[in-house]
Design brief:
Layout: E1 2-3, H1 9-14, E2 17-20, H2 22-26, H3 34-45, E3 49-53, H4 58-67, E4 72-75, E5 80-85, E6 88-93, H5 97-117, E7 133-137, H6 146-158, E8 162-165, E9 169-173, H7 179-191, H8 198-201, E10 202-206, H9 212-217, E11 221-223, E12 240-241, H10 246-259
Parallel strand pairs: 1-12, 2-3, 2-10, 3-4, 10-11, 11-12
Antiparallel strand pairs: 4-5, 5-6, 7-9, 8-9
Length: 261
C-alpha cells in the first residue's frame, strides 16, 4: 500500500467518480462526522459522481440517496440498487419476485439453524430493512468471539449460502453479487458507463473484508488507516492508504484527490 502522497495528478484527473463503503470508512463508529460529510459535498462540487457501496440494508439506501449528494447506493453487498429518481428514489432488485420469496424463506430457516448452533448470536438491529440477506452483529452493539463466528460460518456454508464479513456484521445471502459486481452494474445500468472503462474511471474507498472485491476490481483504490487490520483477509490490498482512520481518513482521501485536480 502506498501513501496518499504518491497519488499523481494524472490518476486523480482520470477519475469520473468515487465509490465508497460506509461503516468505519465514511462513518466513524457509526457516526457521520462534519469532516466526512463535508468531503462528500466537496467531491460532488468538483464534478465527481458519488455512489455509496455498502453492506447496509436497502432501506438505509433509500434515505441516503434522497438526502446526500449521491447518484445512488449499492446496498446489501451489491444485490439491491437505490437510484436517484427525480426528487425521489427507486429501489431495484434484479432477482425475480418468486425467486426472492424462495430465498427469503431459506434465510429464515438459516436464522433458525444459527440460533440453534450459536444461541449467543444476535441479529443486527437493521435486519428488518433488508431484502436479500440476513446479518448478525459481531462488532457493532455486541461482540462475538472468533470461535462463535466460525460456528455461524459453518452453518451458513452447510446451508449452501455465501457469507461476507465486514468490520461490524456477518452477512449471509443466497445471492451471487458482491460490492464490485453490484457497483459496476449500477454504473453501467443507471449511469450509462462503459463496463470496460469503469475500473479506471472510478475509484473506491473501503476498510474491511467485504470490500475485497472492490479493492481487486478497481485500479485506484484507497483504504482508510484501519484497513490494515483487514489486510490478511484481502487478496489485494488497496493501492493507497490514508494516515487517519474512518471518517478522518475518508476526508484525507478526498483532500488528496481534490488537491491534485
Amino acid at each position: 500500500m502506498k501513501p496518499l502522497s504518491e497519488l499523481t495528478a494524472e490518476e486523480a484527473l482520470r477519475l469520473r467518480g468515487l465509490l465508497f463503503d460506509l461503516d468505519d470508512t465514511l462513518l466513524t463508529h457509526g457516526l457521520l462526522t462534519r469532516d466526512a460529510f463535508g468531503s462528500l459535498w466537496e467531491l460532488r462540487e468538483a464534478g465527481l459522481t458519488l455512489v455509496a457501496v455498502t453492506g447496509r440494508p436497502s432501506a438505509w439506501g433509500t434515505v441516503l440517496a434522497r438526502q446526500w449528494p449521491l447518484a445512488g447506493c449499492v446496498t446489501e453487498n451489491g444485490a439491491i440498487h437505490v437510484v436517484k429518481d427525480g426528487s425521489g428514489v427507486s429501489r431495484l432488485d434484479l432477482c425475480a419476485e418468486t425467486e426472492r420469496r424462495a430465498r427469503r424463506l431459506r434465510l429464515t430457516r438459516l436464522v433458525d439453524d444459527v440460533r440453534a448452533a450459536v444461541p449467543e448470536a444476535r441479529l443486527t438491529d437493521d435486519v428488518e430493512g433488508r431484502v436479500s440477506d440476513v446479518t448478525w452483529d459481531i462488532g457493532e452493539r455486541s461482540t462475538l468471539p472468533d470461535d462463535q463466528i466460525a460456528s455461524i460460518i459453518d452453518v451458513v456454508d452447510r446451508a449452501g449460502a455465501r457469507w461476507l464479513r465486514s468490520s461490524v456484521h456477518l452477512h449471509a445471502t443466497f445471492d451471487s453479487d458482491d460490492k464490485a459486481t453490484g457497483g459496476v452494474r449500477f454504473l453501467v445500468r443507471h449511469l450509462a458507463e462503459d463496463p470496460g472503462a469503469v475500473p479506471w474511471r472510478y475509484g473506491f474507498v473501503g476498510d474491511s473484508g467485504n470490500d475485497a472485491a472492490c479493492f481487486a476490481a478497481f485500479w485506484t483504490t484507497f483504504g482508510v488507516a484501519n484497513v490494515r487490520a483487514a489486510v490478511p483477509r484481502l487478496s489485494r490490498p488497496p493501492r493507497y492508504v490514508a494516515n487517519h482512520p474512518m471518517g478522518l481518513g475518508f476526508a484525507e482521501v478526498a483532500r488528496a484527490i481534490l488537491s491534485r485536480r
